[in-house]
């Protein structure tokens, strides 16, 4: 067999033929072959060495934690399980005694692992580190610093953990707070906005379970609610709105008198709200401003007078109303925000407008107050009680109750104290006679109640005396009481549920009090008093050591009153209502014997 013939051409020469013997390589291919054999020998040697190294490494590390494994940041790679547990306990257990540091949004917090029901399952943690890998590449990489974080296996008390998460809400959760401007005296201070945030309970739970043992701060996820304002926008409002506004007073020119709005008042009246551009808009709380500056111009205003029903001739007549004049603050303060921007010329002109009476002459004439629709008289009272009855009667005389309105005796008179002309008089306290400023008013209340009763007014609330008083009709009487500060305790109220007005007339004498209700009479009223039942005898009660007044007491009983309302003219029955009243026995007061003489 012949080998290939290589022909070599030399320019100008005849072709030369070279014949190569079988089995004899040429020079280039021989060199290449030698190199390949050498590389193969080296590769085989390296591979063999790696195989030997792999075997030795596998043999020597059998049963240990894989190299490069960390648990909660602690390197336990290449250790036996026993050594690894010791290493972990030494590194991690001191952390467990310290509170776990947390951060939810921009709020720092902490929780004790025991309170959160968190503990480490050491055996499960070590098992979780895995076994020696058989993959030679993995083992080779571990020799060059490759690491893997495993984390601890946590045992949780779900109830404690959930409770601990919820206990973080008061500190971490907050509503969004827009930026604003507050004043410290007359110095404006920027209050930067704060977005709202709410703890993600499920996410926080997982983050805490995963990271609590690392010794690092655990980031808890929160949902964020954005705000409209920005810190830059708030600062701009301070510089461009607030500071100029309180730079100097504002003068309000009234009729014949000026008022001054001081910077402190301006500061207290400014109201800031978020604007669309991240800044703030400002306005004035007129009520606050008027409350401060209004009294300065009060003398320039003229108070009006409501129309009144008077009984100078025995019959009701209308005393005409008189309109007043006052500052129209809404118009006066319309340009105030522009004035607050100025450095000089900080002035306003008071605008005056008529102030119509609340009850005009025309309105009073249309109330239909023309005849007596109910009246009642009670008699007999001590002179000091008579003073109080006269005082309250004068206050109530001429009162108008419009259709649909409710009259309140305590509300109409206000506090009944010495300042209003009331004096100390007799009262019954816990069944025993006593004295209080305003005593005796209950007799007027009973008289007014009966006048309203026979005028067919709607009872809007009253209370009978606890003990029966013989000068009053049983089950058809009322008492009233106030605290010393004038606040109402027991009141007398009735509602005018007719379509015409009602006027109250009071007539006082030294021995009687009469109340008449005037309006348009539409009803006749009949009262039927029931019999007495369930009588109970009085009990003895020791009187006070000082100022004791003995009394024989009186029995208690139950009785009733039925009111029948009929239409005038037709006699048709409109309503029939029965009220049952239980009176307590009035105790027999026994006074202690006087101290021995001498």
UniProtKB/TrEMBL annotation:
Q: Does the keyword Membrane apply?
A: yes
Keywords in UniProt for this one?
Membrane, Transmembrane, Transmembrane helix
InterPro entries to which the protein is assigned, alphabetical: Glycopeptide_resist_protein, Vancomycin_resist_VanW, YoaR-like_PG-bd
Transmembrane residues, as ranges?
39-60
Pfam families with a match to the protein in the record = PG_binding_4, VanW
The UniProt annotation puts the region (Disordered) at 1-32, 528-598
Q: Where is the composition biased (Basic and acidic residues)?
A: 563-576
The YoaR-like putative peptidoglycan binding domain sits at 111-215, 275-348
This protein's source sits in the domain of life called Bacteria
**Is Transmembrane helix set as a keyword in this record?**
yes
Name the chain's protein.
Vancomycin resistance protein YoaR
Please tell me the species this chain comes from: Actinophytocola algeriensis
Lineage summary: Bacteria, Bacillati, Actinomycetota, Actinomycetes, Pseudonocardiales
């Amino acid at each position: 067999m012949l080998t290939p013939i290589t022909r070599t051409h030399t320019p100008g020469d005849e072709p030369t033929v070279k014949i190569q013997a079988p089995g004899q390589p040429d020079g280039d291919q021989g060199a290449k072959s030698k190199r390949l054999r050498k590389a193969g020998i080296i590769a085989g040697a390296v591979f063999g060495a790696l195989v030997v190294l792999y075997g030795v490494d596998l043999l020597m590390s059998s049963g240990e934690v894989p190299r490069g494994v960390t648990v909660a940041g602690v390197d336990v790679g290449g250790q036996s399980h026993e050594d690894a547990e010791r290493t972990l306990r030494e590194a991690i257990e001191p952390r467990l005694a310290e509170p776990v540091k947390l951060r939810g949004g921009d709020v720092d917090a902490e929780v004790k692992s025991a309170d959160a029901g968190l503990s480490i399952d050491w055996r499960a943690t070590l098992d979780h580190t895995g076994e020696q890998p058989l993959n030679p590449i993995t083992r080779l990489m571990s020799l060059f610093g490759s690491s893997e974080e495993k984390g601890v296996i946590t045992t949780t008390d779900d109830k404690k953990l959930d409770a601990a998460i919820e206990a973080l809400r008061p500190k971490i959760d907050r509503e969004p707070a827009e930026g604003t401007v507050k004043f410290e005296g007359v110095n404006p201070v920027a209050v930067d906005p704060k977005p709202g945030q709410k703890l993600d309970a499920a996410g926080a739970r997982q983050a805490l379970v995963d990271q609590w043992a690392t010794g690092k701060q655990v980031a808890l996820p929160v949902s964020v609610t954005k705000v409209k304002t920005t810190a830059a926008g708030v600062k701009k409002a301070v510089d461009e709105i607030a500071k100029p506004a309180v730079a100097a007073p504002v003068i309000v020119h009234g009729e014949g008198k000026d008022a001054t709005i001081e910077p402190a008042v301006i500061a207290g009246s400014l109201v800031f709200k978020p604007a669309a551009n991240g800044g703030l808009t400002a306005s004035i709380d007129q009520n606050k401003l008027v409350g401060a500056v209004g009294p300065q111009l009060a003398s320039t205003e003229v108070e009006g007078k409501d129309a009144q029903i008077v009984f100078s001739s025995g019959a009701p007549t209308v005393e005409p109303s008189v309109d007043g004049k006052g500052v129209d603050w809404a118009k006066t303060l319309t340009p105030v925000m522009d004035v607050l921007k100025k450095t000089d010329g900080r002035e306003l002109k008071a605008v005056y407008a008529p102030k119509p009476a609340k009850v005009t002459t025309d309105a009073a004439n249309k109330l239909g107050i023309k005849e007596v629709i109910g009246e009642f008289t009670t008699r007999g009272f001590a002179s000091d009680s008579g003073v109080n009855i006269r005082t309250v009667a004068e206050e109530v005389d001429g009162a108008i109750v419009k259709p649909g309105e409710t009259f309140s005796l305590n509300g109409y008179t206000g506090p009944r104290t010495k300042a209003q002309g009331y004096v100390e008089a007799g009262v019954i306290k816990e069944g025993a006679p006593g004295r209080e400023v305003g005593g005796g008013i209950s007799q007027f209340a009973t008289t007014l109640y009966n006048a309203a009763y026979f005028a067919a007014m709607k009872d809007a609330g009253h209370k009978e005396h606890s003990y029966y008083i013989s000068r009053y009709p049983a089950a058809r009487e009322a008492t009233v009481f106030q605290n010393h500060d004038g606040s109402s305790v027991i009141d007398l109220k009735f509602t005018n549920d007719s379509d015409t007005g009602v006027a109250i007339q009071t007539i006082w004498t030294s021995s009687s009090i009469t109340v008449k209700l005037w309006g348009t009479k539409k009803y006749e009223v009949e009262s039927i008093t029931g019999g007495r039942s369930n009588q109970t005898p009085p009990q003895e009660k020791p009187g006070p050591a000082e100022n004791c007044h003995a009394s024989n007491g009186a029995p208690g009983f139950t009785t009733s009153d039925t009111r029948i309302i009929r239409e005038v003219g037709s006699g048709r029955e409109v309503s029939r209502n029965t009220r049952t009243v239980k009176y307590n026995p009035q105790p027999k007061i026994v006074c202690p014997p006087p101290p021995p003489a001498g």
